[in-house]
Design a protein that fits this description.
3-stranded antiparallel beta sheet; 332 residues
C-alpha cells in the first residue's frame, strides 16, 4: 500500500509538471486603469509561479484588446473586461468560437449610484434612502447658495452626465430643494468629496466603483426604493432625449475575465482559476486607495495583494500551485 501511494504521488507530480510545461507562453492584457493593471499583475505572478507559464503583460485597452482577441487570437487573456462596452462583438466572438468567458473579475460588477458620507448615515439612518435625503436637503449645502441643497452630478461630456441628470429629474430633486452642480471634471468631483470629509460636512452626488475615492472615503449608496429597471435605464435614463425618466437604481456593469477560445480549451486548470478569481468592489476600492497613497504601480500592488490576502487567493488555486506561489513570495 505504501509503495502504491508513493507511486501515485509520483505520477500525480509528473502530470502536474507536464501541465506546467504545456502552459508555454501566455499573453495577458494590461489595461490602462488601476484595477485592471492590478488584476493583470496578480494573474501574471500566479500563472508564472503557480502554473509554470511564461507569462507576459502586453498593453491593452477595451476596444483594441477585444478586437484583437476576436480577429487575431491575441492576447490570450483580458483579466478585467467591461463587457457592456462592446457586448454585441463579444457575444458574436463567443458564438463564433473565438472567445470564452472565464468568469466575473468584479463579482459586484461595475457600480454606479448616488452617495452620501457614511458618517451622516450613522447619525441618521434615513439618509441611506432617497426619501431621507430629500427631507433633509439643507444638510447638503450648496457651495454657492446655502439656501439650496447641492447635488454633484457627473462632469459635462462624460456619458454618466446624461444618466445622473435624468435621475435628478426623475427623483424630483429640484422640487426638494436641490440644485444640480456640474463639478467640471473628475478631479473636481473627487475634490468636492475630499473637502466635505475634511470638514465632516454633507455631500450628495454621483460616483462609481471600484475607485480609490470610495476606498479612502466611506460612502453609503442611497437607495431609491425603486429597484432596477434595466430596460428603462437603457432606453431612457441613458438617453439625452429621454422625455419622461423614471426612478431606477443603476444596474451593475458586467466586468468579466475573457480569454481566447483556443487558450480556454488548452488550459483547463488555469481557466478554472480565472473563473474563480474575483474581487468585491469594497476590497478593490481599498486596494486602489492603497495604490494611490503609495504611488504604487500594478506590479507592486499585485504583490501587496498576494502578501496580504493569502487565505483568499489560495482558495482560487490547486494546492500545489498555491504552494509554488507562496514559495515565490517568500523568496522576494
Amino acid at each position: 500500500m505504501k509503495r502504491f501511494l508513493i507511486a501515485a504521488l509520483m505520477l500525480s507530480g509528473t502530470a502536474i509538471s507536464a501541465n506546467a510545461a504545456d502552459c508555454g507562453k501566455v499573453t495577458i492584457a494590461d489595461m490602462n486603469w488601476s484595477s485592471a493593471t492590478l488584476i493583470a499583475n496578480v494573474d501574471r505572478f500566479i500563472l508564472e509561479h503557480g502554473f509554470g507559464c511564461e507569462a507576459e503583460l502586453v498593453p491593452g485597452d477595451t476596444m483594441p484588446t477585444g478586437t484583437s482577441m476576436i480577429e487575431k487570437g491575441e492576447p490570450d487573456i483580458a483579466p478585467e473586461f467591461w463587457s457592456n462596452s462592446m457586448k454585441e462583438a463579444l457575444d458574436k466572438g463567443v458564438a463564433d468560437g473565438r472567445l470564452a468567458v472565464a468568469g466575473q473579475s468584479l463579482s459586484d460588477g461595475g457600480e454606479e449610484g448616488f452617495w452620501v458620507p457614511t458618517y451622516m448615515v450613522e447619525k441618521d439612518p434615513s439618509l441611506a434612502t432617497i426619501e431621507g435625503v430629500m427631507k433633509n436637503a439643507k444638510l447638503f449645502k450648496h457651495p454657492e447658495d446655502p439656501e439650496l441643497g447641492g447635488f454633484y452630478g457627473c462632469p459635462a461630456g462624460w456619458n454618466c452626465q446624461i444618466s445622473s441628470g435624468n435621475l435628478f429629474k426623475a427623483l424630483k430633486l429640484e422640487e426638494a430643494g436641490f440644485d444640480l452642480i456640474d463639478p467640471g471634471s473628475g478631479a473636481g468631483l473627487s475634490g468636492s468629496i475630499a473637502k466635505a470629509f475634511a470638514r465632516e460636512e454633507g455631500w450628495f452626488g454621483y460616483y462609481w466603483a471600484p475607485t480609490a475615492v470610495l476606498g479612502k472615503y466611506k460612502m453609503t449608496k442611497v437607495d431609491f426604493g425603486s429597484g432596477i429597471d434595466e430596460d428603462h435605464f437603457k432606453t431612457c435614463t441613458t438617453q439625452a432625449e429621454c422625455a419622461d425618466p423614471k426612478p431606477t437604481m443603476y444596474p451593475p456593469s458586467l466586468v468579466q475575465t475573457i480569454s481566447t477560445a483556443d487558450f480556454a480549451k488548452g488550459h483547463d486548470v488555469i481557466n478554472t482559476y480565472l473563473g474563480t478569481r474575483s474581487f468585491k468592489n469594497s476590497q478593490m476600492n481599498e486596494l486602489l486607495a492603497w495604490m494611490e497613497d503609495n504611488q504604487a504601480d500594478g506590479e507592486t500592488a499585485g504583490i501587496h495583494f498576494l502578501m496580504e490576502n493569502e487565505a483568499q487567493w489560495t482558495a482560487w488555486l490547486p494546492a500545489e500551485a498555491a504552494a509554488n506561489v507562496k514559495k515565490a513570495l517568500a523568496d522576494l
